[in-house]
Amino acid sequence: MAKCDICGKGVHFGNNVSHSHRRSNRVWKSNVQHVACKVNGSTKRMHVCSSCLRSNKVERA
């Protein structure tokens, strides 16, 4: 799974906890998109999370 090139957000790990309190591994995947962005006037394809896209931290090409 890719990480955001802007903020570094990636996969988070934890546990599923059942009703009997047995634990198994669990993964939360962040919403990372592969988009074309403007960087220093040129276009570059980057991995960017949806929160960075919404907050206008990158300019889409």
UniProtKB/TrEMBL annotation:
The keyword Ribosomal protein applies. It comes from the Bacteria. GO terms for cellular component: ribonucleoprotein complex; ribosome. The keyword Transcription regulation does not apply. One of its GO terms (molecular function) is structural constituent of ribosome. Keywords: Ribonucleoprotein, Ribosomal protein. GO terms for biological process: translation. Belongs to the bacterial ribosomal protein bL28 family. PANTHER family: 50S RIBOSOMAL PROTEIN L28, LARGE RIBOSOMAL SUBUNIT PROTEIN BL28A. This is Large ribosomal subunit protein bL28. It comes from Butyrivibrio proteoclasticus (strain ATCC 51982 / DSM 14932 / B316).
